[in-house]
Amino acid sequence: MTAPLLPEPERQPRWFLLLYALAAAGGAVAFVPLLTVLLPQRIAELQGGEDVAVLAQVTFFGAVVASVANIAVGTLSDRSRVRRPWILAGLVLSSGLLIAVGAARSASELVLLVMAWQVGLNLMLSPLMAWAGDCFPDHQKGVLGGALALSPALGALAGSLVTWGALVPPGARLWLVAALVAMLVLPAVLLGGGRVRPALVEPRPPAHPDAPARADHAVRRMWAARFLVQVAEGGMFAFLLFWLRSIAPGYPENAAANIFSIVLLCAVPASLVLGRWSDRHGRPILPLAGCAVLCAMGLLVMAASGSLAQAIAGYVVFGLAAAIFLSLHSSQTLRVLPAPQHRGRDLGVFNLTNTLPAMVMPWLTVLLVPGLGYAALFVLFAGLALASAALLASFVRPLQSPLG
User: Which of 32, 156, 182, 276 lies 20 to 30 angstroms, CA to CA, from 327?
Assistant: First the structure.
């Protein structure tokens, strides 16, 4: 016996799609400038110079706290059956703790403040992502994923803006970040009442007896596929400048940052086009598998590069494909999660694909680069990307609901 077909949930208007994408970008603006630029600067101020050990402590313990907090807050927002109050509470708490980071008086106090800030940040981010699953139907998830490509692009631009010495004095940088986050997040939350689609939040019985097993299989493959690409993407994010300088000594920092920013900006229209295509043709996973293959191709070009131009060309292919993959994957994950009543919790488990690579990737680099060079690291990353594509290959056919 099959379950009755339910009417397709109504599409969200473009204005809400835009506001939601900006709110999600506010999450990136909240952490990218701090973790990439402002936090290392603050450590240097407190320690009297660069201190890799303190930065490693902050990064590691922050990732652990973020992992636990995201799952816990997602579970709480599931049980409360509301998202927006949690998002607002997280915005207030994370903004206050972000500003407090600038007033830390010791390295140990800084570590504790960043750990607390991670709790506040995930109090905002966890229900924000789950809210997308409550609001956007499956036939709109491709374009939603394309819009989510704004997040890394605006995060990178915010990092450049707040460190522009002629415009922003050092003492105002954290305040500016908090203000930018509020400006991006609040419109969607305040104007987004009534956007939840009841059909997307109510538990539905499986249409076939084996549907739950197939759904679990899909979830595991989607999780592993993202994790593998995130390891490669995280490695390039951390070591792009060092690698370019191994090819061209003295390669300037701003040039590497410009390449990174340009790639992320170009990923926005490309993600929108591919996301819209996947919606129209009912092929949500095909762009993901294709981007994973392109990631591997770009990495192999990088591994074999003998000139700066070839190295940059390989990175552009890899970086563009990885950015598109990650943005589209974020929205299509919402499609395969089988239990709407546990959406926040399950997305917290998927968030581990963002935090665990930060713990894994440095060890891979330490093991491979000193003895074998960056080429060996890139070949390994290419293998991970191809494995991701293979995991997704079984979903390349038109995909219906995992419960259908």
Answer: 182
Render 77-120 in DSSP notation, one character per residue. HHHHT--HHHHHHHHHHHHHHHHHHTT--SHHHHHHHHHHHHHH
**CA 304 – CA 301 distance, rounded (Å):** 5
Summarize the confidence of residues 52-80 as an average pLDDT: 89
Q: Which CATH architecture has domain 14-188?
A: Up-down Bundle (1.20)
- pLDDT (tens digit per residue) in 76-107: 999 999 999 999 999 999 999 999 998 888 88
Q: What is the pLDDT of residues 320-377, one digit of tens each?
A: 999 999 999 999 999 888 888 999 999 999 999 988 887 777 677 777 777 788 888 8
CA dist., res. 63 & res. 250, Å (int): 32
* CATH code, 211-395: 1.20.1250.20
Residue 403: strand, helix, or coil: coil
Lowest mean pLDDT among 79-93, 151-165, 378-392: 151-165
Residue whose C-alpha is closest to residue 277's, from 265, 268, 285, 289: 285
Mean pLDDT of the chain: 87
**CA gap 282, 209 in Å, rounded:** 24
Each as own residue / partner, the long-range contacts of residues 168-177 (CB below 8 Å, 24 or more positions apart, any chain) are 170/41, 171/102, 173/33, 173/38, 173/102, 174/34, 174/38, 174/98, 174/99, 174/101, 174/102, 175/99, 177/29, 177/30, 177/33, 177/34, 177/38, 177/98
Q: What residue spans define the domains of the chain?
A: 14-188, 211-395
Burial of 134 (0-12, 13-18, 19+ CB in 10 A): buried
pTM of the predicted structure, to 2 decimals: 0.89
Q: What is the DSSP letter of 250?
A: T
Contact assessment for residue 316 and residue 244, using Cβ atoms and an 8 Å cutoff: no
